[in-house]
Amino acid sequence: MPQAVPALVSPAWLHAHLSAPDVRLIDASWAMPTSGRMCRAEYEAAHLPGAVFFDIDQVAAPAAPKPHTAPSPEIFAKACRALGLGNGQHLVIYDRSGGALAAARVWWMFRLFGHHEVSVLDGGLEAWQALGLPVDDRPVSPSERPFTARLDHTLVRDVRQVLAASRSAQEQIVDARSQERFQALVPEPWNSPRGGHIPGSLNLPHTLLMTGPHGGFAPPEVLRAVFTEAGVDLTRPLIASCGTGVTACVLALGAWLVGKKDVAVYDGSWFEWSRDAGLPVQP
Fold it and tell me: Which residues fall in a coiled-coil region (predicted)?
């Protein structure tokens, strides 16, 4: 399905469309558990007018070993309905972590479940506030709306598919973690029992894409150069991976911005791979 809206919107564009009847805002702020941050409390203290809070750790598969594992279509649809997010709306997602960290994850999730009218606010809350645009601390009470979720299998890969890609090299595996984590030079933050990376995978730290103002995305020509310098062939199939499936979505969104719209995400990522002693690891 072709994209009906731009993947990125600017703060100026969003401010001009803030009162549009079909535009809904989502605060997808998220932080590593070790950060000590309370993102919901931060949202309650200051959010974009009318924005609802989307918690990727709550809208997730119940009892899954990995945090924020993508849920079933039924669970996703129920959560969206409760947040007042429905069919036919243009959803604009932002976060306050700099650029599009969990915002990219939520962008991917909506596309995964068939909702293509979704954009990310470039530069997030920081870029919005830098222009002196308004924030609010009033509670948001959304009215439930119909939401239909249909899983797009082309946008996600499981461990068996990633293992096959590693062996055959028919799909490129690109890891969004830092070079130090990719090469097992530093400990993994998720208590992963093994360090290193999936054999044959390429390393493209997601931060290399987020060099625009306020941590937003770099211009398309820079994004394309970054992919090329990492050894990624954007004409070939691509699977994005990372630690737990969050920054992998930054790679997926970055690739979309240069015209590659079929990037799949390995949702289990290194959290899952490192815990299976039967899977090979490359240091």
Answer: none
CB 18 within 8 A of CB 137: no
Q: At what angle do helices 248-257 and 102-112 cross, to 10 degrees?
A: 70
Residue 1: CB atoms within 10 A of its CB come to 8
pTM, full prediction:
0.96
Tokens (6 digits) for 273: 């791979």
Domains, the chain: 8-151 (3.40.250.10), 154-275 (3.40.250.10)
What is the DSSP code string of 28-81?
Answer: -----GGG---HHHHHHHSBSTTPEE--TTTSS-TT-SSTT----HHHHHHHHH
Concerning whether 249 is annotated as a catalytic residue, the answer is no
Say whether 222 sits in a helix, a strand or coil.
helix
pLDDT tens, position by position, 3-53: 479 999 999 999 999 999 999 999 999 999 888 899 999 999 999 999 999
CA dihedral 7, 9, 15, 16 (to 10 degrees): -90
